[in-house]
Amino acid sequence: MTKTAYGKVAVLLGGTSNEREVSLKSGKAVLTALKNKGIDAHAVDVGKDIIDVLRNGKFDRAFIILHGRGGEDGVIQALLEMLEIPYTGSGVLGSALSMDKVRSKEVWKGFGLPTLPFEMLHAMSDFAAVAGRIGFPMAVKASHEGSSIGTYKVNDVAQLQKAYTDASQFDSDVFVEPWVVGKEYTVAILGDNALPVIRMETPRTFYDFEAKYQSNDTKYHCPSGLSDEDEFLMKDIATKAFRAVGAYGWGRVDIMCDSQGRPWLLENNTAPGMTDHSLVPMAAKVAGMEFDDLVVRILDTSVKG
User: Fold this and answer.
1) What is the pLDDT of residue 217?
2) Where are the CATH 3.40.50.20 domain residues in the chain?
3) Where are the alpha helices (DSSP H) in the chain?
4) What is the pLDDT of residue 269?
5) What's the pLDDT score for residue 305?
6) Does the predicted model carry a pTM greater than 0.70?
7) CB neighbours (10 Å) of residue 132?
8) What is the Cα gyration radius of the chain?
9) CA triplet 154, 159, 165: central angle to 5 degrees?
């Protein structure tokens, strides 16, 4: 598309989720890239007045770089559908399913894709019995949060109870699954292609919020160190997982490999970070794509059909 064919672009950033600050950084980088390419882009910090802002702004399309609730869960996508404004990334269904870790796991299981066994937790759960079935260590996770918010590693029943209480502050849906000891990978999806696999390495307990966005001691390996065959397999699993939940356009799939080298799907991201610590730009660069060009390629996903 020509620069003028995109029209007036709203870069939707900020929002009200727990990932607001990351979204502001991502949005600033995206806005700069679009302007560098001569595209008429405008930052829009999403608040309760977003309907009026979009209507009065007479935008031709939207670049969604909102992270977490309100941005990746189908809410803003549904609003844009009603306003008939084309937007980047996945639609309502793919966004909503991807944001819900439990439903994603159920879909993946139905497709025969590798995902860890899990149990839902409740205030009245028999935590000792859950521990007996799942085993320690285990991960307690808030189902609808991203960036590892509301995720805890636990090693005994007392920690399990506390982790449930802490996670339930973020989400009414909390689940537990085995803690995988191994290597963590991520696969960026752009259009119909999977970009080079990245392996993350952190001295922290796991690749948590600080390791993702604040720490300078996290290491990223791209090439990933996998054999050509294993890299192909991981890309194939990620692509199938992405499509299984109805996602399209662009995104990122996170995968753990256990000590035996078996891959386990963790989660799907439909509006990943685009900061200086972010993984999609890193993979794109290894594939020979500079940041500004990547942003335009993502903007192209707003042209559906």
Assistant:
1) 72
2) 4-88
3) 20-36, 50-57, 75-83, 92-99, 101-110, 127-134, 157-167, 209-213, 228-244, 279-286, 291-299
4) 94
5) 39
6) yes
7) 11
8) 19
9) 105
Structural class in CATH, domain 4-88: alpha beta
Work out the angle at residue 146's Cα, subtended by the Cα atoms of residues 298 and 238, and round it to the nearest 5 degrees.
55
Sorted by sequence, the CB contacts under 8 Å of residue 113 that are 6+ apart come out as 237, 240, 241, 244, 265
pLDDT block averages, 10 residues each, the chain of length 305: 83 92 95 97 96 96 94 95 97 95 96 96 93 93 76 92 90 91 95 96 62 65 95 97 97 95 95 89 96 96 74
Please give the C-alpha separations between residue 249 and each of 93, 94, 108, in angstroms, as whole numbers: 13, 10, 19
Rounded Cα distance between 92 and 242, Å, is: 14
Would you name the residues annotated as active-site residues?
19, 147, 213, 252, 254, 267, 269, 273
* Cα distances (angstroms) measured from residue 128 to each of 155, 157, 181, 219: 12, 6, 22, 36
**Distance separating alpha carbons of residues 166 and 183, to the nearest angstrom:** 26
Fold of 119-178: Dna Ligase; domain 1 (3.30.1490)
In this structure, the strands spanning 193-194 and 198-201 are: unpaired
Please list the residue range(s) of the chain that carry CATH number 3.30.1490.20: 119-178
